Write a sequence for this structure.
């Protein structure tokens, strides 16, 4: 479940938007109804509005108190994101033992190799976007290669959709196709924009939209097969 947009110590609560009223309580209720301590929940971006790790601490503590292990990816609003070492050291220092970062690596859970990256927008057309998306494609490939070493089935998580409406990201799709990825979960899309989001099969890949409001703040089960 992506795009939690938590702001427990800030002023960016999403309750003002249609469909988001009481979303933090809804997340907790649905999470506790489905997730056990043995489970793993992947959060593919936009987890906290905090501008720094310290500002995001209350949001991390909220997640820490929920059952299961949590795997965090970077989203476009995760301004607290920094180096892997700084994030891991911060988590350790504050007893956030159930939180892990997915970035240029993979995480094995329940016989699946979880991999992915942020991705990037592809319709803006700025020269700088090409460099970013090329870098994100390289990060995705590095993550998938780490997953393939495990011998378990790779499952990809992205923040940005690689396909949206009539637009697509050839660099990201190329990585997915070359590595024969069969499942890809992504977020970022909200509200009326969901009507243009792919939640089905494209190029032999089954895509799942998992932004929290699209799921009505109810975690989506990732099947083992």
């Amino acid at each position: 479940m992506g795009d939690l947009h938590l702001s427990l110590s800030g002023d960016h609560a999403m309750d003002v938007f249609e469909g988001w009223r009481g979303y933090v309580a809804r997340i907790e209720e649905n999470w506790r109804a489905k997730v056990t301590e043995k489970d793993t929940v992947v959060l593919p971006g936009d987890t906290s509005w905090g501008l720094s790790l310290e500002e995001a601490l209350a949001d991390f503590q909220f997640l820490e108190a929920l059952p299961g292990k949590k795997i965090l990816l970077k989203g476009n609003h995760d301004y607290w994101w920094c180096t892997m070492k700084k994030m891991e050291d911060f988590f350790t220092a504050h007893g956030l033992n159930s939180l892990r970062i997915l970035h240029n690596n993979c995480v094995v859970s329940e016989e699946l190799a979880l991999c992915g990256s942020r991705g990037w927008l592809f319709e803006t057309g700025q020269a700088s976007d090409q460099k970013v998306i090329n870098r994100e494609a390289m990060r995705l490939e590095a993550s998938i290669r780490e997953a393939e070493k495990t011998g378990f089935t790779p499952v990809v998580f992205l923040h940005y959709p690689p396909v949206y409406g009539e637009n697509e990201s050839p660099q990201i799709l190329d990585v997915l196709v070359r590595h024969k990825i069969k499942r890809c979960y992504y977020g970022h899309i909200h509200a009326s924009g969901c009507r243009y989001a792919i939640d089905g099969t494209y190029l032999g890949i089954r895509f799942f939209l998992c932004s929290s409001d699209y799921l009505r703040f109810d975690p989506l089960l990732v099947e083992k097969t």
